[in-house]
Amino acid sequence: MLAKRIIPCLDVRDGQTVKGVNFINIRQAGDPVELGAAYAEQGADELIFLDITASVEKRATFAWLVEKIARKLNIPFTVGGGIRNADDVARLLDAGADKITINTAAVRQPELVEKLAARFGSQCVVVAIDTKNTAKGDVVYIHGGRTPTEQKTRDWAREVVERGAGEIMLTSMDHDGTKNGFALGITCELAESLPIPVIASGGAGSKDHFVDVFKKGKADAALAASVFHFGEILIPNLKRYLRQFEIEVRV
Fold first, then answer.
1. What is the pLDDT of residues 60-117, one digit of tens each?
2. Which domains does the chain possess?
3. Residue 2's pLDDT is what?
4. Distance between CA atoms of 67 and 49, rounded to whole angstroms?
5. Which of 19, 114, 167, 226 stands 20 to 30 A from 26 (CA)?
6. Which position among 51, 130, 212, 220 bears the catalytic label?
7. pTM (2 decimals)?
8. Is 11 a catalytic residue?
9. Catalytic residue at 174?
10. In angstroms, rounded to a whole number, what is the distance separating the alpha carbons of residues 40 and 18?
């Protein structure tokens, strides 16, 4: 059995790590370089960096900041925000990223998933899906959660798999920052039906929420931000707790 992964996420705006609730009410959470180094030291399995305003501001991700963080890491590093084409990806990989994640650009140009997988390999391409439950069902949002689309979450997840995505990062906008637990239903549905790993994101507030997302949600990895940034949960303690429930993690 593959070990479950614990992944801190750095949502970065104007060079600083921030965190909100339901994608709004943003507050400062610290220096991303220092946080990244601390998480690598604590035993995080991977680190994800999201430049959360790059797409809506129609600019590229801050490669200089990616490079500074990457120098401090000895764990896989995934970077997203503002990626529009293969050249953007090449620039981020050169800066030290191991994988990239795309959301807005993938929805706008679905063929981009295929192009990136062909050039860099599926293992490099993580498709981020920001999902919200609406009157129309679970739908995909873009531009950092600002813009709804006509894409149904389940259909879009299946499409990106067919196009060559190597992994899906599923963020429930309804649960994001609430600390009330992950969206177990849709996470489980995608994790059990898709042939690629699913990273669950949005809602972590306690160690039991991680147990639930692995046991009930069947996620391959769990991502969290504020509970790690503000010291509410320490990664070594979390991993020891998970092992009590026979959840395989790297220690």
1. 667 889 999 999 999 999 999 889 999 999 999 999 999 999 999 999 999 999 999 9
2. 5-244 (3.20.20.70)
3. 86
4. 11
5. 167
6. 130
7. 0.91
8. yes
9. no
10. 19
